Amino acid sequence: MSTTQLTSNDNLDWGEEFSMRNVLFHEALAARLGINARDLKCLSLVRHNKEMTTGSIAKQVGITPGSATTMIDRLEKKGFVRRTSSKDDRRKVVVIIVPERQTEIGQLYVSFGQAVAGLYAQYEPQQIIFIAEFMYKMAGIFKQETEKL
Length: 149
Description:
Blueprint: H1 11-33, H2 37-49, H3 54-61, H4 65-77, E1 81-85, E2 93-97, H5 99-108, H6 110-120, H7 125-148
């Protein structure tokens, strides 16, 4: 469907398609790494934050601290993360990404990044800003609705 054919009544169709393709992409990427999609999202969170406690991971992902510990154990066993003392407070144990594995993950996103860059090139900067604002607002709605569940 081209964008010239979209109407406001089609929002569920394109929204559902985007959601489905996003989930399937991340599941396929996670499978290539031998992990599940939630574990992949955990890695993304830790990468973004540089270091995180297991408790903060649990809160961000929406799981119990015990489940977060099990997830971190799995990721540590597969060599994706390691536990270490916080640089700010040596008494605190934090989870960090193993740099070599981060490079491996990054390689799986190269083609995707190139495709997205090609898509960005089709839009004016103001349009990209509008799309980014929309996506951030959608992320906020997802977060809010997830918390309700």
